[in-house]
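Chapter summary example: a protein plus threonylcarbamoyladenylate.
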Amino acid sequence: MITRVLKVDSAQPDPAFIEEAAAALREGKLVAFPTETVYGLGANALDPAAVAKIFAAKERPAIDPLIVHLAHIGQISMCASHVPPAARKLGLAFWAGPLTIILPKKPQVPDSVTAGRPNVALRVPAHRVARALMELAGVPVAAPSANRFSRPSPTTAAHVLADLEGRVDVVLDGGATDIGVESTIIDFTVEPPVMRRPGGVTLEQIQAVVPEVVAAVQRGRTDVAQIAPGQLTRHYAPRAELTLYQGAVERMIEQVAADARTMAAQGARVGILAPEEDLLALAPEVAPLAAAGRVEVQPYGSRTDPARSARELFAALRSLDGTGVTHILATSINPDGLGLAVQDRLTRAADGRVRRV
Ligand code: TXA
Ligand code: MG
């Protein structure tokens, strides 16, 4: 298949291009499109044959259910059989936006979308291109992140093409996404409602509207990699082996410097992924190693701006991975606000290799 790439202005997308992509969706084809979080790989959610193409293109296991995207909150009853008042309240507060709500599903939602579960995940994206596409398609759109399974989520059309060129019919290129981490998932099929995945809407913002919502860890589970059912541990994984450092900033910096030195001496090619402030502090130790070609450094935002860290995280992971390093040493930011989603994605990428210092 030849992938058709349509460049669109994210503020004022060309209606002809959106209509072409919408028609492709109605014909059962795959369309990658920007949302405010990450790019999605969309198909008509009510067409099981189209949905099957998503799993094939991504090489995603069929046990991992898909989020269904809607044009507006009024379409919620197309897919959900029951909407509790608290879920309605949350949808009204944060849609269109980076929020996903899990509700009991209607029979017309195919089992392949929900991986056999009786519940469906629903989201109304805020990105103009995504909204225009949903509106013109006239069908709910099942869309996971548009990456190959276990690769970091795509925040640009170039990332989508790197993973899926030749496997997707149309890519709407609306530039880099704004938030950079995926939507926050709240499960309303349990009591109290649970945050299954931290994301673009912070837990603090959610709890200000529906105070009953708890984080999965508060229910006694400490492994963040377990919080979304169907989310396999090895997610957002770079090709290089990533170790995540946690603890006081000075201790993380000391330990990363020491470990980079040791590993480089042993012949490894080391990548360091850290907020700008950390890279500045590491520079005296690391510059000679970088000059010798043993170390690559890559910033992801700033300690004072977790939103920027979130926006830059996945692109930073891809870029560092692309340099061919064998190991990545990453320092953590505080898990407040968007920092919680950043920490969650880095923990998954580390796949258990977390070093507390
Ligand atoms: O921001 C986002 O949410 C992006 C954009 C494209 O909308 N989408 C996204 O989809 O991140 P995906 O498939 O990469 O992640 C969705 C997560 C999966 O981990 C899946 O297990 C969970 O949502 N999920 C989907 N449907 C579910 C359901 N019925 N019950 C429980 N978890 C569900
Ligand atoms: Mg994904």
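Key point: Residues 218-230 have pLDDT under 50 and may be disordered.
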